[in-house]
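Cross-posting from the modeling subforum.

Setting up a comparison between two proteins and wanted a second pair of eyes on the formatting. Protein 1 (sequence, then structure tokens):
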Amino acid sequence: MSGAPLAGALVERDWRTPLELTVLGAIWGCSFLFMRVAVPAFGPYALVEIRLLLGALVLLPFLWQARAQFPARRWLWLAPIGIINSAIPFVLFAWAAQRAPAAIGAICNAMTVLFAALMAFLFFGEKIGMRRAIALLVGFAGVVVLATAKVSGLSIGAAVIAGAMAALLYGLGVNLVKRHMTGLPPAASAGATLGCAALVLMPMALTHWPSAPVPTLSWICAIALGVVCTGLAFLMFYRLIARIGPARASTVTYLVPMFGALFAWLFLGEPVTGPMIVAGVLILGSVAASQRR
């Protein structure tokens, strides 16, 4: 009898975890679609400012509740982490969305896991191992394939480089969070870093605010990008980390490119080309190999 509640909890966890990972992968896949639609009207700076502000507002109640754990000295690290882990990567992905299909950014985003290992090796003294080093080389090969490809006759190399740089900064940000924000409530920490990033980016957003009226659809995508793909998605991700650990939660990385490409094809009619598939297989395969125990 005592084992019945435990068995029921395990069954619930077994179906809930893959469901939540799938939903989160779909949400973050949507973010590249929303950027692709909204960035022509807003430009990258204004769009990212809206995203950061709305994401921070969603998480503000958690930050307020834990405000005693955020003394002034904490903010010396929160602001730089917000710039490295949110402001600059978001701008780079938005800039790339102006110049390449939504799937390109989603595929580059998958490199975050590999770049996190590389940054830990280069700057924080962690061992990388032969298997992970080979995975990095394979992943970089995927980026090269993507960067040298053309979509509808147009070169997408600059957009791929921007997406890869954004993933590189994410990888550095992951290591900074691990070393300087351990022990802090994750949702509150995310709200703090997003708020800092929004404050830093605000001057650029105001000076680059669109002069022409922004279409309603672009506003809808921008709001969804901030509220759903940033604020609510961070809540889901941190809840998954708390329940199943960071290694299993990071498997959502495998789903984002697939959903990003699927949604761009369904709603924007953007093609999924052979080089994109090859690059995606190389990058995701290398990420999967690097995560094996």
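Protein 2 (same layout):
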Amino acid sequence: MAFLGISGMQYSGEMFAGARIIVAEDSNVFTSMISKRLKELFDIDVEICRSFEELQLSYDKSSDPITLAISNINLPGAENGEALEYLVDLSIPTIVFTGTFHEGMRDKLMAKDIVDYILKDNIFAVDLLAESICRFLTNHRHHVLIVDDSATARALLSSRLKRYNFRVSTAENGAKALEILKANRDIGLMITDYNMPDIDGFELTRRIRSNIGSHELRIIGVSSSSNRLLSARFLKAGGNDFMLRPFIDEEFYCRVNQNLDTLLQIQSMRKERAVA
């Protein structure tokens, strides 16, 4: 199965017929479109719940874990967001699919640690939803290393990445990062702070690039500094991207996705050349 997402995501691999996905949505138009698209793309038979009561019954009727839920904010019987609260309380990974959106709503959604949110305000909404689902179902393929001397910063980034279903390792300094990279050659992305006591982010990147190229490992630098020249220095040291803190979840996830998409594209091209 081959899939090309709107944002540039490419997936070529097995279908996800074993995934249990619940769609909590009362619109017949959208439930039909979602069901058809996910079956066509990924061979997924979704469970449709058109009310809060149906959602509760769907959860109670089977002991099989729910892989992912797609939920509108408001459902019949849960007009004040109770369905989303229910899913979050059960620790079920959830993508919100909604036509109601404003800044305050966005802040409330992100505070609930949802996987993603997709707006129903364009003709590509179902395709964007399909891509978000595909990313969640395949992100476990990616191993990400976080390097930061701040335990709080490591925990925050780790929690964000795990929410999206990535495998995560952490290092409290540059020396530990080099050790982890040597023992885990499957790590495809490293996110490193600039200001660290033993080996700063620049030096760490330089040392890594002497052995590991961008076709094997993407590197994103982060910093709380207001010095805008840090990005230039980091890129010249061999980094692939740079972000200034504080950054919002959507920007962070987009940058992570873009770098991993690029990594997979480079690796695919190298394999094709090797075969040719």
